[in-house]
Amino acid sequence: MKKEATTEAKLTRRGFVTAAGALGALGLAGCAPQAAEKMADTGADAPAEPAAGESTPWNGVADEVTREITVQVPGKPTPDGAWHNTFNGGPLTAAEQHEALSSYDWRKNELTASQIAEDAKAMTDEEAEAILMNEPVITEDYVTSDGRTIPAVYIALRNRLLRVGQGVGCEIHGNAWDFLMQEFTEDEAAFYLKLPNFAYFTDKEAGEAEGMSAEDAGKICEDLSYRGLLNRVTRQGQKYYHVLAFAHGMLEFMMNRYEEEGFCDSVFGMLGADYGYQSRNQGSPMYFPIPANQEIVGDTQILPNHDWNEIIDRYDTLCVAPCQCRTFTPIRKGEKPGTLCDHPMETCVATGEQAQYYIENGIGRQITKDECREILQRGVDAGMVIEVMCTAECDVICQCHGDCCSILRGFISLDGDCENYHYMSHYELQVDHDQCIKCGSCAARCPLFTIEMTDDGPEIGNLCVRCGQCATVCPVGARKLFARPEAERFEMPENMVDDYHMKALERAKRGYINDFDPAKAKAKA
Prior knowledge:
Layout: H1 22-25, E1 37-38, E2 61-62, E3 71-72, H2 94-99, H3 113-120, H4 125-133, E4 142-143, E5 149-150, H5 152-161, H6 178-183, H7 186-194, H8 203-210, H9 214-226, E6 230-235, E7 238-243, H10 250-253, H11 263-269, H12 275-280, E8 287-289, H13 308-314, E9 318-322, H14 325-332, E10 346-351, H15 352-360, E11 365-367, H16 369-381, E12 385-389, E13 396-400, H17 406-413, E14 427-431, H18 441-445, E15 451-454, E16 457-460, H19 469-472, E17 479-483, H20 496-509, H21 518-524
Antiparallel strand pairs: 1-3, 2-14, 4-5, 6-7, 8-12, 9-10, 9-11, 10-13, 12-13, 14-17, 15-16
């Protein structure tokens, strides 16, 4: 598959979230039931007008950001509050971080995300791969500050998960291993650590890695996969498995257990406070928005993997599951699922092999192509962002909104000030200002609350994800989505395993993978 080049992200020098606000930045601190209020103009410069005689594909200006509109969301500190203190970077470059793993403290880092990304370019894929594959051998148990003993195998297992996809965050705290100790026996954890990473494998290959028969290894893999701890696909009668990331992975595949007492707190308790920052500054998105429908696309043809009707057409197996965000967020607040907003609950569509896994594991129900279209159209009609997992296989299609989606809420908490916003979409929004009648329909519709009505008409803030919802309700067709130049589009991995690997390589280059070793921690103390 051809890899597409990406342009350097352009970020402000404003600081990022602190450890205290990291889970809020992740979007897990809570959901607002009402649309966000808008704050006044910050005075940012308006976009430059096209040069005289310049030809444009449409009679408008690319309004990716017309001015910086800060969104005030209920329950979120204002921009001058603690959530915008300096968060990551520092006197250490990515390479120096790797040389000082035992003493590296992410809280003292002061580099911006763009500086870390630029520094990471000096590291080759081969050097990053060596970091991923050089998992430390943990031989000592760890005693937490409250006197609990964490067996070495669970520390090694968390170091493994740190390497997969978006990882789990480097910051260590007393509950960092609770979920793993809850879900894996020590023997299962040791088994998991020997499985190939970033690859599909058979029971035979698992047995060879473990030094046991294919039959015995297959039984363990089957059990782990039905518990949401391994992925499982069947191709031409042969079962294959692969190691999972925290997200998209274990979190989503265990959604049928969210309502178990303490389960959500346990799984999220595994995350380090830097997880939210890392997952939003890693060079590629977890999901990316696609146009709400083809009619709002100004180009003659919609981009591949961006037409949800086409995605539905290519798969015979489809399923739908409840929205994870609108399920676990209320639970973590002591409320019932679906109580924090009035959007539909059954919105997460899985396709193909992922759909089959969802169905077999009882976390989704099989649907027809027609029912799938109805579900997605309902989401569009409800003003939701249609998002697709960042793979060419389009494993999952989500329907999200800024008042209840963890991913979008996380971006709102950062006012869009993170690198992944540059990679959120392959489209740009253009507005025909002469055609616009200033009716305000777009501002009322925007699921990120980032369009503000002014005397001059609607102005777009820095949270636009190019979902095109504003264009679906424009009565005069004054808003359209146009494809960005190919060189400016982010790389699209083939499948979930490829995406895990691509993100892990980039995180290794940026110094995000810092293993915990009890022996080194003891020596440092």
